[in-house]
Write a structure and sequence with these properties.
Layout lengths: L4 H5 L3 E8 L2 H10 L6 E8 L17 E8 L10 H16 L7 E4 L3 E4 L2 E13 L2 E10 L24 H19 L5 H10 L7 E6 L2 E10 L5 E5 L4 E4 L1 E6 L6 E4 L3 E2 L1
Parallel strand pairs: 1-2, 6-14
Antiparallel strand pairs: 2-3, 3-7, 4-5, 5-6, 6-7, 8-9, 8-12, 9-10, 10-11, 12-13
Helix pairs in contact: 3-4, 3-5
């Protein structure tokens, strides 16, 4: 693994490991010990990889498992927007390494990448207040050579999709793409441009759906994202509800979506 020269020139650092329990766990441990970002961490495999809501992220060798540790990347209220920034960077990197797949790639709210409707990559944003500021760990997993079977949402990998891409080349492209998207975001000031770019490549953002919230459910038609990245759902009575987190069930027997537009910031 190597950083793209543009990322290295911008002061990003890099640590590679054959095996880690979790790149996010390791990054936050470093932050608690005084480490400051920007620092990329990669692992050839993870023994305790995880996704959103504590779900296990199966992590065999051959795929890309990486975390970018950032220190105070934006005001705390803007930090959850980093999920959209990161999703765009992952999409940019895959576009660059596998241009033949571009038309098949879409973004799933808020931070998954789909290929022909199947999950190809996922992102987990975690943050903690540490003595020297807000530490954000942007964990990224991309199915390069393998994908899990028997999941509630269909999955795929780049090889299965017909793209001959290595984890090493994808990481180099990702480090460059992330640098550019962070610059576009401008610590939250440029989220309007990020939101517009995300919507241009969004999938599964229309049609009737049921959203399961803590203690209740609502049904309506998805219309867009608001200026904070929340899902806008038009309810049956005509009111518009902004949803920050929930479980989305497209109606008419479509696959279940588990979504959240808020990062876990402690």
């Amino acid at each position: 693994m190597q950083l793209h020269p543009s990322a290295a020139a911008a002061g990003f650092r890099f640590s590679a490991f054959a095996t880690l329990p979790s790149t996010n766990t390791y990054a936050l441990m470093l932050a608690r010990g005084g480490e400051r970002g920007p620092l990329w961490i990669t692992a050839g495999q993870q023994t305790e990889g995880r996704g959103r809501r504590g779900n296990a992220w199966i992590s065999p060798p051959g795929n890309l498992y990486t975390t970018l540790l950032l220190t105070d990347p934006a005001p705390a209220e803007c930090a959850p927007q980093s999920s959209f920034v990161s999703a765009l960077a992952v999409l940019d990197a895959i576009d660059g390494c596998a241009p033949g797949l571009r038309d098949a790639l879409t973004l799933k709210w808020p931070n998954d990448v789909l290929c022909s409707g199947c999950k190809l990559a996922g992102i987990l944003i975690e943050g903690e207040q540490v003595p020297h500021g807000l530490a954000i760990a942007i964990g990224i997993g991309v199915n390069v050579r393998h994908h899990p079977q028997g999941t509630s949402y269909p999955t795929t990998d780049l090889t299965a999709a017909g793209a001959d891409v290595s984890a090493e080349s994808l990481f180099a492209a990702l480090s460059a793409a992330m640098l550019e998207r962070l610059a576009q975001w401008r610590r939250g000031a440029g989220f309007g441009a990020i939101r517009a770019a995300w919507l241009e490549r969004a999938g599964l953002m229309s049609g009737e759906m049921k959203v399961r919230l803590p203690g209740s459910e609502v049904t309506g038609r998805c219309e867009s994202l608001d200026e904070k990245g929340r899902l806008l759902l038009r309810l049956g009575d005509g009111t518009l509800q902004a949803i920050a987190a929930g479980e989305v069930f497209p109606l008419a027997g479509a696959a279940v979506e588990h979504v959240s537009s808020t990062a876990r910031i402690e």
